TrEMBL record:
<keyword id="KW-0378">Hydrolase</keyword>
<feature type="domain" description="HNH nuclease">
    <location>
        <begin position="277"/>
        <end position="328"/>
    </location>
</feature>
<keyword id="KW-0540">Nuclease</keyword>
<dbReference type="GO" id="GO:0004519">
    <property type="term" value="F:endonuclease activity"/>
</dbReference>
<keyword id="KW-0255">Endonuclease</keyword>
<protein>
    <submittedName>
        <fullName>Restriction endonuclease</fullName>
    </submittedName>
</protein>
<dbReference type="Pfam" id="PF13391">
    <property type="entry name" value="HNH_2"/>
</dbReference>
<dbReference type="InterPro" id="IPR003615">
    <property type="entry name" value="HNH_nuc"/>
</dbReference>
């Protein structure tokens, strides 16, 4: 099967390992290409080394870099050709064998295997390919542990959930033939869902979960949310819904897709409106996320593009707000859910305030009501 072949290739990229970690350059280049395919910027199997590609590469690189890694997108653009599925098209009159590194005067563009390019048109396949790429940088269990800690949970919670998924829950899935191996070795959100959804119906699972005060169901859900987050599943599904809509014009689709992935006019409007993080005032654009107050899944198309339904937040605040672990009172005072363990690890503390504006209030009301069970209203 072509997909399995490319998933294997993506998991086993020849990444240089220095200073105790694998270099993220090839991973970031492929992630950038998939982002641009998703946005429709790359619509043909022709990948040009231009400013748009370099900017997309840099956004991923800033997230995945470690140590003294250098932001050099030209290196993976050339060196990915050693993987067998990435090809360089030389400029006219240039012999491919004479190209020893990236040079605009020698390389016209890159292109993928036709099969791979076709697979990348699917949002579901892209999410699996993204997960496969991430495994080049660290194993999924370690990445999950970091993900749990980033949400302010304790090390003991991370280890407890991970132990449950790798142990009792994997054993149950294998015993009932829902999975052929350990659940943490599944590199696809969709495969994980197929393997774990039937567990909830087993009496054996229900008994264990009851004795464990719902710990096993929380662990299953947590690891699934991690895979979805890592593969950007929610985003890709929403983009698919937009592109398949018969009610939107091509221009409306383009604007909505740009807003969904945090680019375009929606983000620009928030940058102009807030001039920095709406809570901390931090002003470096690369570190800020255009966040919807009334969630995308619940909003109308008009509300999705309304700057008054947006906050510009640092990534840690955005994640906590998006998941309903924090909200804001009409006065702007932060509200922190008890379910958010160790918020100080995320840089979140009581006394923080949002510079709230009257036009934000109706959307903040919706957000608080959506997560009202977590807050005292």
């Amino acid at each position: 099967m072509a997909l399995e072949f490319y998933l294997s290739k993506f998991r086993e990229l020849n990444t240089m390992r220095l200073q105790g970690h694998n270099k993220p350059h090839k991973v970031c280049m492929l992630l950038a290409v998939m982002d641009l395919i998703e946005l429709g910027v790359i619509s043909q199997n022709r990948i040009e080394f231009n400013q748009t590609l370099k900017q997309s590469f840099t956004e991923h690189f800033q997230r995945l870099r470690a140590g003294k890694d250098q932001d050099t997108p030209e290196n993976p653009f050339y060196h990915l050709s050693s993987e067998g599925f990435w090809h360089l098209q030389p400029q006219p009159s240039v012999e491919l064998t004479t190209i020893k590194g990236y040079s605009k005067t020698k390389v016209a563009y890159a292109y993928l295997d036709d099969e791979l390019f076709t697979l990348m048109q699917s949002s579901l396949v892209r999410s699996d390919l993204r997960l496969a790429l991430t495994q080049n940088l660290t194993r999924l269990p370690e990445l999950y542990r970091r993900w749990v800690l980033e949400f302010g949970n304790s090390e003991s919670t991370a280890q407890k959930y991970l132990g449950a998924v790798r142990g009792v829950l994997s054993d149950l899935a294998i015993k009932h033939r829902f999975s052929i191996g350990e659940l943490t070795k599944i590199g696809s959100f969709h495969e994980y869902q197929l393997a774990t959804t039937p567990l909830y119906e087993l009496q054996e699972f229900k008994d264990k979960d009851s004795r464990g005060n719902s710990m096993y169901s929380r662990a299953l859900k947590s690891y699934g949310e991690f895979l979805a987050d890592l593969g950007q599943v929610d985003v890709t599904n929403d983009v698919d819904d937009i592109l398949q809509s018969d009610e939107l014009s091509a221009t409306e689709k383009s604007v909505l897709v740009s807003a969904r992935v945090g680019q375009g006019q929606f983000r620009q409007s928030l940058l102009e409106q807030w001039q920095g993080c709406a809570v901390t005032g931090y002003g470096m654009p690369a570190m800020l996320v255009a966040s919807h107050i009334k969630p995308w899944r619940s909003a109308t198309n008009t509300e999705r593009l309304d700057p008054d339904n947006g906050l510009l937040l640092l990534a840690n605040l955005d994640k906590a707000f998006d998941r309903g672990f924090i909200s804001f009172a009409d006065s702007g005072e932060i509200m922190i859910a008890e379910a958010l363990e160790r918020p100080e690890v995320l840089g979140i503390r009581h006394g923080m305030r949002l510079e709230v504006r009257p036009q934000n209030l109706k959307y903040l009301h919706y957000h608080r009501e959506l997560y009202q069970q977590r807050f005292v209203l």
